[in-house]
Amino acid sequence: MSTVLTNVYALWTAGRPNDEPFFVTAVVHYPEETISYKPGFWQIIKCAWMQYVSVLVIFVWVLQTVKSYVFQNQLVTSIKYMPWKKDY
Q: What distance in Å separates the CA atoms of residue 30 and residue 3, rounded to the nearest whole number?
């Protein structure tokens, strides 16, 4: 790939005094370039685990809240069973 700079419109003006700076104004037109990139497995995992954990935390909190509400208000019949205790 290369770039070619050509002078299409030349405008020369009178010289400048020695105490003023020299200015150059240029507009460079270049074609748009498409760059394709395929990330590797570990790069995808590096970004995906943060998204997974953030969504997981929200769902665990919501489900824990719903479960606590359902069992505390006895909306579902439940029996406390402890297999290590023998009822004779």
A: 7
CA pair distance 29, 62, nearest whole angstrom? 54
Nearest to 80 by CA among 70, 69, 71: 71
pTM, rounded to two decimals: 0.44
3-state secondary structure of 32: coil
Q: Are 5 and 28 in contact (CB under 8 A)?
A: yes
Host H or E run for residue 50: helix 41-72
Of the candidates 7, 3, 57, 12, the one whose C-alpha atom is nearest the C-alpha of residue 30 is 3
Read off the pLDDT of residues 17-29 as tens digits, 9 standing for 90 and up: 778 887 777 787 7
